[in-house]
Amino acid sequence: MASDLIGFDLFTLKGDPVSRAVAVLRIARQQVRLAYGDTESWRLEAVLSAIEDEIGGCLGRIANAMDSDAADQQASGKATAQRQAELPLRAA
Questions:
Q1: Dihedral (C-alpha) 11, 15, 17, 22: value to the nearest 10 degrees?
Q2: How many CB atoms lie within 10 A of CB 37?
Q3: Per residue of the chain (92 residues), what is the pLDDT tens digit?
Q4: Closest to 58 in 3D by CA, of 31, 15, 9, 24
Q5: Is 77 left (phi over 0), alpha (psi -120 to 50) or beta?
Q6: In whole angstroms, how far apart are CA 25 and each of 12, 77, 82?
């Protein structure tokens, strides 16, 4: 198995740590899907299917947490203050 890891696909992650983590999870889910389609072992298919489900669950939990945080900020007025702080200053 370890000898199969010699040819790596290279990619670059950009953005904040959360967006990079989400990108890695999406890549992992795609690779699991590819492995699932390539195997003939029903045991391995079951394990890969469970892994894909777990990765999907993790992505969903991250999205829900981000949505909840955004809603909390909106409700507390922090989002408005953040938008106002990002506006360019005008000369009086």
A1: -60
A2: 9
A3: 445 655 667 778 889 999 999 999 999 999 999 998 888 899 999 999 999 999 999 999 999 999 998 888 778 777 666 766 776 766 65
A4: 24
A5: left
A6: 14, 32, 29
